[in-house]
Amino acid sequence: MTQYLVRRLAQGLVVLFLVSLLTFFLINLAPGGPSSLVDMSTTVAERNARYALFGLDRPVHERYVSWLASAVQGDLGRSINQGLPVTGLLAQRLGATLALALSALVIAGVLGILLGIVAAMNPNRWPDHVVGTVATLGMSVPNFWLGIVAIILFAVELRWLPASGIASIGRGFDVVDRIRHLILPAGVLAFGLMPNVVRVTRAAVLEVKATDYVRTARSKGLRDVKVLRKHMLRNAFVPVTAMLGLITTVLFSGSVVIESVFGYAGIGRLAIEAANGRDYPVILGVTMLAGTVVVVVNLIVDLLYVVIDPRIRHV
Amino acid sequence: MSEVLITTGTAAPLRRRSRFFARVLRQPLGLIAFTVLVLMVLMVVVGPALLQHSPTRTSPLETLRPPSAEHWLGTDELGRDVLARIAHGGRVSLAVGLFSMLVGLFLGIAIGGSAGYFGGRTEAVLMRVVDTFMAIPAFFLILVIVTSFGNHPVMIVVTVGLGFWAQMARSVHAEFKRFRLADFVEASRALGSKHLRLMLRHILPQVMPQATVLATLGVGWAILTEAGLSYLGLGIQPPLASWGNMLQNAQAYLFRAPILAVWPGLFIALTVLSFNVLGNALRDILDPRG
C-alpha cells in the first residue's frame, strides 16, 4: 500500500512537471509571446528595462529553471498587468471558485446519483427514459446559454435571485446573501455535470444488480430498498468515485465560462481576464493551480477506493 | 458510418449487414438525430446560396426587427439578417466541430494506439503525456494556446482538438493493449506483417466502433467548446459569424431583444443534442458491450 502510494505520488509529480513544461513553453515559444507585451510607443531603453524586470532578456530554458525553482516554493512570479504576486491573486480568488465548484458538485452528485439509481432500477422503462432525456439535455445545452436564460428568468423577470456577483455591495459577510448569489451559477454548472454522474451511477448499479450477492439478498426476501441500501450502494460508489478526477477538470472548465456569465470573481474569471490582457504569468499560475488540484484529487480518489471497498488492495 | 462497420466484417458480410440494419432500425431516436444533422449540414452548405440576404451587410434603418416575411428570424443590432448569420455561423461552428474531432481522433489513435501496441517504455512515456493533457482542464489549455498563438480559425480547430484527444487516446490505448497479442494479430505477425500493417489493418478495425462513438460525442463537445470560447470573445472573431459569437453579441441586447440570444442557442443545443443522441445510438448499434 505504502509502496503503491509512493509510486502514485511520484507519477503525480511527473505529470505536474510535464504540465509546467508544456504550459511554460507553449506560452514562451509562441510567436509574439510575452515579449509582445511591451508597449511600442515607449523608448528602447524603457522597453529593455521592462524586459529585464520580467527576466525576458534571458534565454527561455534559463527562465524556466528559475521560474520552476520559485514555483516549488510557492512563488509564481508577478502579474504583468497588476504588478501583484500571482500566488496572492490566486489565493484571493480560490475561495469563491471552491464555493462554486463544491456547491455544483454536491447538487450534481446528489441529483445525479439519485437519478442514476432510479434509472437503473427501472431499466428501459419510462423512468429510465426520462432520466436519460434529462441527462442528454444536460450534455447538449451550452452552459453559458443556460446561464443567460436563467438570468433572464430568475433575476430579471421573477426577481427571485441576484443576476451576478459574489455578494451584494455594501453588505458585510452574510451567509444567506452569499448562498443566494451561488444558487444560479452553481445550479447551471451542476446541470452540465450531472449527466456524467447519472451515466456512471446507472451503469454501476446495473452491474451490481446482476451479481450473485444481490441475487442472494433478494432470494432471502429482503425488500428492494434494503437490498439497495445494504448491498448495492457502496459497491456502486466505486466507479462514481473513480470519475472525481474527470469531474474536477469539467468543473474547472465550466467555471471559466460560468464565472464570466455571472460576473463571479473566481479563478475562471481570473483566467479570462489574464487571457484578454495577455497576462502570461497569471495564465501559467492558473493552469498550474488547476493541474495540481486535478492531480491531488486523483491521489485522494486512489485512497478513497480502499475506504469504500476494502476488497481493493493496492500492491 | 456504415462503411466502417462493413469493412470490419470478415465472414458472411451479407448476413452481418442485414443484422446491422435491423439494429439500426431499433434506434428510432438515432435515426431522427441523423436526419436532423443531415438537414443541418444541408442548411449550412446550400442555405447561404439560397438566402437572399448577406450575413454581413448592415442596414442601420432595420435594426433589432422581430421576425417578418422579409427577415424570417428578424435582424440583429446592426440590421443584419439573423437567418443568414445562423446559416453562415453554422458553417463555421459545424466545420470547427468536425475538424477538431478529426484532430482529436487522429492524435488519440496515433498516440494511444502506439502506447497500447508497443507497451513497455514507449507506453510509460506516452501515457504520462496523456495524463498531462488529462490533468489540465480543457478550457485552460485552450486559453493558454489561444492567447499565445492567436485565434485564427485553423488554430481554434487544432486547439479544441487538443482538448479532446487525451480521452480518445485512453480508450484506444486500452483496446490496442487488449488486442496486440490476440491470435489473429499473432497469425499475421507470423506471416511477416510489419508493425504498421498490424496496427492499421488488424487492430484498428477492432477499435473503430468504440472510437466512432467517442468521436460522435466528441463533435458535440467540440461545438460546445468553440461556442463557449467564441462567446467569451476568444474564439471565432467578428465579422465572421459563429453561433458562439452571435450569442456574445446578443448578450448586450438581452433586455431589448432577448430573442437574439434564443436562436443561436437553440441551434447549438439542437445540433449538439443530435450528435449526442446519435452517439448513444451508435454505442448501442456498434458496441453492445459498452
Explain what the structure shows.
The complex is a heterodimer of chains A (315) and B (290). In chain A, 75% of the residues lie in helices and 0% in strands. Chain A is mostly helical. The N and C termini of chain A lie close together (6 Å). In chain A, 38% of the residues are buried. In chain B, α4 crosses α7. Chain B is 74% helix and 0% strand. Chain B is elongated and about 75 Å long. Chain B contains 12 helices and no strands. By secondary structure, chain B is mostly helical. Classes of the chains: A mainly alpha (315), B mainly alpha (290). Chains A and B meet through α1, α5, α6, α10 and α11 of A and α5, α6, α10 and α12 of B.
Would you count the extended β strands of chain B for me? 0
The number of helical runs of chain A is: 12
Provide a count of the helices of chain B. Answer: 12
Global shape of chain A? globular
Mean pLDDT of chain B: 83
Which chain pair shows the most residues in contact? A-B, 57 and 43 residues
Largest sheet of chain B: none
Straight-line distance between termini of chain A:
6 Å
Report the portion of residues of chain B in β strands.
under 5%
Span between N and C termini of chain B?
18 Å
Tell me, what's the shape of chain B?
elongated
Radius of gyration of chain B: 22 Å
